[in-house]
Amino acid sequence: MEERIKLQNKTIFVTGAVGFIGSNLVLELLRTQSPVLVVGIDNMNDYYDVSIKEWRLAEIEKELANHPDSSWTFVKGSIADKGLINKIFEEYKPDIVVNLAAQAGVRYSITNPDAYIEANLVGFYNILEACRHSNDNDVKGVEHLVYASSSSVYGSNKKVPYSTDDKVDNPVSLYAATKKSNELMAHAYSKLYNIPSTGLRFFTVYGPAGRPDMAYFGFTNKLLKGETIQIFNYGNCKRDFTYVYDIVEGVKCVMQAPPEKKNGEDGLPIPPYKVYNIGNNQPENLLDFVTILQEELIRAKVLPEDYDFESHKELVPMQPGDVPVTYADTTPLERDFGFKPSTSLRDGLRRFAEWYKEFYQV
Fold first, then answer.
1. Where in the numbering of this chain does the NAD-dependent epimerase/dehydratase domain appear (predicted)?
2. Dist CA 156 CA 152 (whole Å)
3. What are the backbone angles phi and psi of residue 151, rounded to the nearest 5°?
4. How far apart are the C-alpha atoms of 15 and 182, rounded to whole Å?
């Protein structure tokens, strides 16, 4: 097992800091690792409703008030802005970098590919370069780079559960191709410059204040308006739904354990590089998911008790770029960190429904 590093008193740079996972990670660091210095960057783009991002930012400010010995600095900007990234590294000298900034979404990558190249390739390259140069002149630079990959790298992989040992050379979307590229770029930088890096392949993340482009959120919006929801592949989809707090707990464990720097038999560094799946290891049928969601929306009084779901459901064929099953083999994460998600689908969707009611004042 890699040697653990303590997060207290460290400077942690989180990109995509008011994103769904990023904001929850910042909250968790403030709650459990104080005193800690967190620097966040986010471009606050309008890919989805910016008011949700503003709500998350306000939650961070509220949490900070409880931890006067910690600090939080927010920079509004893009990781594709090389000058800005270099300036942040020079000024704050981060010990740990968690790169969660990315243009997300499989379907949007078909209509707006430029955004993916800019954020996911150019932006990630800027982060890698900054990590590399943080060690210049024998200065102790970045101790660990943790970055978001995605379950979409598995493409139309037929073998389930998906294992990080599987070959992932057949992406079915540009989004997936950019995430696979991140893993390859990180490997090259780990090998060339001995930068400890860990990639995390996230599986369908859900929870309160999530992304409105995710199915459960979109379904809720549509049902509330009395519109029909489309369930792809005639409901024969399985997803490894993972509750956001479980994901964050996993990220926090990984941050503390950079892959070990060591030399091979040739005397040259073995890349301090790891990739893990981070998912629930329990794929749920999409129809079951929708059933639990509707029950919880009624319970939270987002929808009336006599809501007629059957008339608002339409079973339709598969969409391009989508896959029928996502299912994570999380054995390595469990083995190395003793980490296993613990939130049931019902509990997670209940918290989402309660948040939704409060946020939209339904």
1. 12-279
2. 9
3. -65, -15
4. 15
What φ, ψ does residue 136 adopt, rounded to 5°?
A: -60, 155
Map tokens 């993340």 to a residue. Answer: 205
pLDDT of 3 > 70? The answer is no
Record the tokens describing residue 199, joined without a space: 């990639």
DSSP 252-274: HHHHT-PPPPEE-TTSSEEP-EE
Q: How far apart are CA 7 and CA 109, in angstroms?
A: 35
List, for residues 251-285, the tens digit of each pLDDT value.
999 999 999 999 989 888 899 999 999 998 888 99
Residue partners of 58: CB distance under 8 A and separation at least 6 = none
Q: 72 vs 29, 51, 237, 244, CA distance in Å?
A: 10, 20, 40, 21
Distances (CA, A) of 235 to 262, 284, 305: 48, 11, 24
Q: Where are the alpha helices (DSSP H) in 209-344?
A: 215-224, 244-255, 286-299, 331-337
Distance CA 294, CA 275 (A): 35
d(CA 285, CA 237): 6
| Positions marked catalytic | 175
How is domain 11-204+243-281+327-341 classified at the CATH fold level?
Answer: Rossmann fold (3.40.50)
| The amino acid at 199 | G
